[in-house]
Every structure is written in structure tokens, then in C-alpha cells.
Structure prediction request, 373 residues.
Amino acid sequence: MIVEKQFFTFARNKPMVLECGARLGPVTIAYETLGSLDEERKNAILVLHALSGDSHMAGRYSERDPKPGWWDIMIGPGKAIDTDRYFVVCSNIIGGCMGSTGPSSTNPSTRRPYGLDFPVVTIGDMVRAQKALIKHLGIERLFAVIGGSLGGMQVLEWSLRYPGMVRSAIPLATTARHSALAIAFNEVARQAIMADPNWQGGNYYGGARPNLGLAVARMIGHITYLSDEAMRRKFGRRLQDRTDLSFKLDVDFQVESYLRYQGKKFVDRFDANSFLYITKAADYFDVEEQHGGGSIVKAFSKARAKFLVVSFTSDWLYPTYQSRELVQAMKKNGLDVSFCEIEADWGHDAFLLPNERLSSLIKGFLECVGRGL
Prediction:
């Protein structure tokens, strides 16, 4: 499948008022689509990406493109999210750096990159921007919203902020709010970026970038995406390109080499300031406080969607008890909800990896929702 990145710009004359009180405009959203809208415009699925993802969900930009989109295993003709049946949309979140308005975008008032002049955005702000895109595409109600991790937070936000627009929702490996542990990891990662001398208070555009700090931040994050079992299987204590310890402060173990590689690869495609803003948005997200006045059960009294909630046994970043809390709140409101904890050794990132169980769950759930139309 050959796909093309598209762009939608709104809030040109009337700025978007963010939850922090700041005004942002114009706002550009980068997005991609696969499949076709049916005549009644009832088959649209919105896919929502995780922290380091983007609008490139599946397919390739050209025949020579070496790598497909981040969820190509799940989206396409005959796959779980079948593009022969559904019109699938994925947009880059605001605050990001893959085509949507974010800290690296040009500030119209200064003609320079925003940097830290970019206002703090929330998951709610991201979803409100997505709604503007969906309206632009002529879609009144979404057949489904689907996403994992930070994308799962957006799924929950969609189902509570715009309940009449969401027929079904599939939050994967996500949470109603960050634990102290999750906030702590994000803060350490942010401090790694801000401690880099090249960060320059966020004003590094046009000069040396804080690549070292961003690489360390990615290394920290990547550890939270894996599990003890996954790292044991993949690396153990095996040495990298040597038969004995070097007795130097250098790479000895394969896991060290892997993390450094992940960090170096990340800085080539991501903006450090976007990392700061997106992790802060994730930390601010709190279904209970923002939608229920302190009650998660009350929060889900707003929802109308049919839910499929999925967690993974080895996910210690957003463990299963957090998904069960969501399910219990949904059930107490009489919502139609299915829940599955999938046995998987690969940690939080399991939803991004090939998994027949997950594929069959999503495919079956969507077919069930379709039969109810």
C-alpha cells in the first residue's frame, strides 16, 4: 500500500483556546488515510499513536521505502483493521514533530521556531484538534477509536469528551492516570534533555541539538517499554563483540549496545522539545479528576461506546490492575465492555508486535460492532 501524508490547517482566524488558557493558531495537523468512506460515512476508524509514533500507521510512502508504518501488522487489506472494509485515519498529535504544529513549528508572531514559547498542551487539546480534522473529513460519528499507551489515553478522552461521536473504543495497554512511577520515569527523561548544554532553554533550533540528552531520555523510556523476561531472552548478560570484560567505561554488554543504538536512532527523527511536551501531557492526564470530579465511575457515566479493553501480563508501566480499574468503572455504568489480559512476555510494547491473539480480538470486536449497525 502506497500512502501519502496530508495536512489540514485550522484556527487561522480564530485561535484554538487550550486547556492551559493559551491561544494557538493557526494549527496544522498531519494525517494519513487508508481505505474508503462508505456512502453513509459510517465506517471511519481513528487510530491514535503512542508517544514516539506519528500519522504513518501503515503502508509505505514509495515502492522503495524500506520500512512500513508503525502498525502495518494490524492495518491493511484483510488484516485486523481491514482497509477493504474501513476508512482508517491517523493523525500526528499537536505538540509533536512529524508534521503537526509543535515546538519546532514556526511561531507566526516571531517567524522563528516556538521552542518553549509553545504552550503546554494536554491530551484533551490533542483530541479537540483531532475532532476538527474528523469534522473536516465530513465524518459525524466514528465507527471506532483505537490506540495503545498514549494513544489509549486519547481513546479514553474521545469516549468521554465526545461520547456521541464514538460508536466503539479499543484502549490498549493504557491507564486512566499515570502512577508516581510513570511520572518519575518521565521526569528523569525530561531532566536528561534539559541537562544537555545544547538544549539552550529550548532554543537550539538552527544550532547543535541536545542529541545526547534526548538519546538518554529515549534509553530511559525504552527500558520501561520492555519487560524483565524480554530483556533476559534478548540479551541476558551476553557480551557485545568481545569474549571478556573490557575493564573500561565502554560498551561491554549487548543490552548496553542496544540501548545506545535506540537512543542514537531516535534523535534522527524526533524533536527534544516535543518529547518534553508530550510526556508532560501524559503526566497531566487524569480521567478521574478531569471528567469525574474525583470519581472514575462518575467519569464513565458520560460514555456511550462499546469498549474492548486490553492489557498485557508483562506490562509493568501500565499494569493490568489499571486496565481492570477502567473496566470496573465502565461496568458500574452499565456499559458494554469486553476485557482481555493477553499473555505476552514483551512488556508494554507488546501491542506493537505481531500477536495473533490481539489481532483476532480486534478483528472480532469490530465485526461484532458492525453487526450492531
In short: Residues 183-278 form a domain with the Rna Polymerase Sigma Factor; Chain: A fold (CATH 1.10.1740.110). The mean pLDDT is 97. The first strand starts at residue 6 and ends at 10. The CA atoms of residues 100 and 298 lie 33 Å apart.
